Amino acid sequence: MGMESLTESQQKIVNILREFIAEHSYPPSLQELSDILQVNINAVRDRLKVLSRKGVIRMTPNVSRGLELLDRRPSGIPIYGYVPAGHPFMSQENIVDTFETRKYLSASENVFGLYVRGDSMKDANLETDDLIFVDPNEEPRNGRMVVALVEGEPTVKWYRKEGETITLVPANKKFKTIIVSKQDEQFKIVGVVIALMRSFDKKRIDKAMKLRKAS
Fold first, then answer.
1. Active-site hit among 120, 161, 181, 188
2. Which H or E run includes 18?
3. Least packed by Cβ within 10 Å: which of 17, 75, 143, 179?
């Protein structure tokens, strides 16, 4: 039946399960759910049985934390690796890792990570191998840093909009600004950059990415 058939109260339980697992890396017990929902354990068990019949969760009998969400996003933020020009970078196959930062970032559930490549944003203190976090649900505004697709290739730039014209401004005088129109089918704002993480151990990053791709 799927997630679309859930009632408001059932969706509330699913949201609680998702948030609890994201924070603790394990599901809540029936008692913990009872405390959160402020209903008795029998009522919790009955509601979970309904969700189980709907194929939303799996319940393992006689196990304290025997709950499993069957239809949920990974708790970690997906991180995408480098992609050759012309290839879609936001594909499942290009996820090289996940990062548990949702408890630290005020962002939508669709936030993702992306490794920086090149030095077009050098003067904004963005360097190759920096990890930026991007929120596709954030509204781009003048002066915000964005990730955009230009002719199928992702690029990180400052965002500026005047009328129907959008200018993507680099933070490096060696690079030219990119001027596009909202109607341009080869152009898309993927999201707004909301955070940056820098690692000074590039060898560790390279090793992690190689291990992830090999697994």
1. 120
2. helix 8-24
3. 143
Can you give the CATH number for the domain in which 145 is found? Answer: 2.10.109.10
Among 21, 41, 69, where does a domain finish?
69
Does the pTM of the predicted model rise above 0.85? no
Number of residues in the chain: 215
Q: What percent of the chain has pLDDT over 70?
A: 75
Phi, psi of 118 (to 5 degrees): 90, 175
Out of 157, 174, 181, 202, pick the active-site residue: 157
Answer with the one of 51, 69, 87 that is the final residue of a domain: 69
Summarised one tens digit per residue, pLDDT across range 151-163 is 878 899 999 999 8
Residue 113, number of CB atoms within 10 A of its CB = 22
Residue numbers of the domain that contains 128: 77-214
Number of domains observed in the structure of the chain: 2
Catalytic-residue membership of 120: yes
For 197, what's the count of Cα atoms within 13 Å in the CB-facing half-sphere? 17
| pLDDT tens-digit readout, 109-128 | 788 888 888 889 999 988 88
